[in-house]
Design goal:
Number of strands: 17
Strand order of the largest sheet: 1-4-5-10-11-13-14-17
Largest sheet: 8 strands, antiparallel, barrel
Number of helices: 2
Radius of gyration: 25 Å
CATH class: Mainly Beta
Structural class: mainly beta
CATH topology: Porin
Distance between the termini: 45 Å
Order of helices and strands: HEEEEEEEEEEEHEEEEEE
Helix content: 10-25%
Shape: elongated
Number of domains: 1
């Protein structure tokens, strides 16, 4: 047994050395660039405040924006991701009565805002590093700040004058599922589906009059991207 062990030892050391060399060759950093398709599943309370009839509400349109992400490989199965998009312009439309008094409302673009919305995720990656096709799941936190908030001419008319829009920032849970496919020379392709909780309290201020509503945007995204690892 001792002779067999001594003969087997060089082979075992060679295998271990090869494994360590393979691990050293695996890149730990990845940048991705692609496209977000952002679909809102928004719900809001009816707008409340002075001179607001029942049933006045809001809706938002889906948007598309470039996606950028940095990933850090933590181990064979765990990766940390910081993802964000070029701040998309999200437009808000009137929903409810056809008019407010004599002013058109339903379907009119009444305000807009850009989203700065980074998301930090911890992802579990299936299979091992030798597999080209690797699905993954992840959970994390989304932070959304609303900038460039503007009321349109139609929004000002519906509100009765120039209106300032206030939207506090949102922090909520996020989740993702996706798949990556490794290409030659450290390139890869990625596709994913994600959902996050983004909710805020809207205040519209018009000549001292304040009208409010609570909005849950319920954003869901599809992403297609190319990555480079180093």
């Amino acid at each position: 047994m001792t002779k067999f062990a001594l003969r087997a030892l060089p082979a075992a050391l060679l295998t271990l050395t090869a494994s360590l060399a393979w691990a050293d060759q695996i890149p730990n950093n990845t940048f991705r660039l692609g496209e977000y398709w952002l679909f809102y599943h928004a719900s809001a309370d009816d707008i409340s405040g002075p001179y607001v009839p029942p049933g006045v509400n809001l809706s938002v349109k889906n948007v598309q924006t470039p996606y950028v992400a940095y990933l850090r490989r933590l181990s064979t199965h765990f990766t940390a991701e910081l993802a964000f998009g070029v701040p998309p312009l999200t437009k808000t439309y009137g929903k409810g009565p056809a008019t407010l008094g004599s002013v058109p409302y339903n379907g009119q673009e009444i305000s807009s805002a850009r989203w700065v919305a980074p998301t930090a995720l911890l992802e579990y990656v299936f299979f091992d590093d030798s597999c080209a096709l690797r699905p993954y799941i992840g959970v994390g936190v989304n932070y959304t700040a609303f900038i460039d908030r503007n009321s349109t001419a139609a929004g000002d008319a519906a509100s009765g004058g120039p209106t300032r829009i206030e939207l506090p920032s949102s922090v909520g849970l996020a989740g993702t599922v996706g798949v990556t496919y490794r290409l030659p020379q450290n390139w890869s392709l990625m596709a994913s589906y994600s959902a996050s909780r983004v909710a805020t309290h809207l205040s519209a201020l018009t000549a001292g009059v304040v009208r409010t509503t609570d909005i849950s945007f319920g954003p869901q995204t599809f992403v297609f991207a190319v990555g480079y690892s180093f």
